[in-house]
Specification:
single chain; about 500 residues; alpha+beta; Acetylcholine Binding Protein, Chain: A; Methane Monooxygenase Hydroxylase, Chain G, domain 1; 3 domains; 8-stranded mixed beta sheet; 4-stranded antiparallel beta sheet; rod-shaped
Amino acid sequence: MSRKYGFPSSLQLGLYLIGCVQCERVRGYQSTGNISVVKEIVDKLLKGYDVRLRPDFGGNPVTVGMSIHISSIDQISEVNMDYTITMYFQQSWRDKRLAYSDLPLNLTLDNRVADQLWLPDTYFLNDKKSFLHGVTVKNRMIRLHPDGTVLYGLRITTTAACMMDLRRYPLDQQNCTLEIESYGYTVDDIVFFWQGNNSAVTGMEMLELPQFTIIEQRLVTREVVFTTGSYLRLSLSFRIKRNIGYFILQTYMPSILITILSWVSFWINYDASAARVALGVTTVLTMTTINTHLRETLPKIPYVKAIDVYLMGCFVFVFLALLEYAFVNYIFFGRGPRQQKKQSERLSKANNERQRYEEKRMREQVDPYGNILLSTLEMNNELLATDMMSSVGDSRNSVLSFEGSGIQFRKQLASRDGFGHHPTLDRHVPLTHHAAVRNRANCRLRRRSSKLKLKIPDLADVSTIDKWSRIIFPITFGFFNLIYWLYYVN
């Protein structure tokens, strides 16, 4: 029975001893006393190594895997149309010239060894400015695996171009990319791929940007063709949405409040020119300042942005509020007096012509005794004019009766006959010189009363303009906001 179970025990013992020896060997390699062994391996690998030739030169293309860990996105600039990103960029490929079997360990070497090895000529197509971090030493890593796999890592910061469409700014979404490609090797020499597929890029979900929210990221691989050949291009595409909170507090709310402030002038009396003009000019200049400050933070692009539409709309409302008072002022102080002057000139001219005509008739109708003869129709016209002159005479109706060459007033007792004549008037009656003078005085009084009426402005019309403005401006501005937000948000 002991022989039956002795062989397995010996085999187990032998395997155990071999394992112990191997472990001791590994520990020996890791100890400082065996650094010479590692040095010999590295020297052997680098001896005769030609950095000018890619792995498997003349054979199959080298496959290079890419992986990225995003450390931060420092800045996204609309003015320069770019963004700045800091990342850990790793590349992995296999170089059979660097394979070793004497040591079952991965060798992490000094970053200066990378200058003695072949490296892919990787570059970023949309790069504007990049640098390799060098504190405290160059932030790059080179690691060798026994099968010849090389892992090359860098910590770099790059500023990459990101073409933005700002038509909906600041209610916009932008798509930025980081494009990776070989500068000189075509697909016949080198092939890039995302190592780990969709998990090749990490850290994006942990980023918190002050003005943006990352809503999507995609990894794209495509082949592009140039005159020098075909190249594989890797693209990291991420979609960002702008946070509107900052712009509501800094731009939209001040613009709304300033627009509403401009409507206060509708409640100020129209004859308070200093207050209304000062308020209107101040609001216009404030809107101009906000618009100018915003333009300084954006590129000079040829199309209209969403924020431009809103600020221009607010500016128009503020400017119209100022023009409203200019219109009221013109109606009250400008157009009214001019019309009054023109109408007064017309009335004065008409009265002068009438006076000349009356004097001419009076000269023609003088009897031998120096009395003026008036027909019944002329007397009726005089009586009608006297009745309508309410501002200078008695408001009660009166008629003239004649006795001899004199004239006196009395209450009207009988109406005119069917032909419009007074029954007490003859065809021609004598009128003394004093009565003619009294008629001319009455004409002058009528002219003065007409001028007095013209000098009183129509205050109801001016107040009506302000009353309608108090209603029309807020309603129109509300419709403007409704249409604006429905269009640009959706």
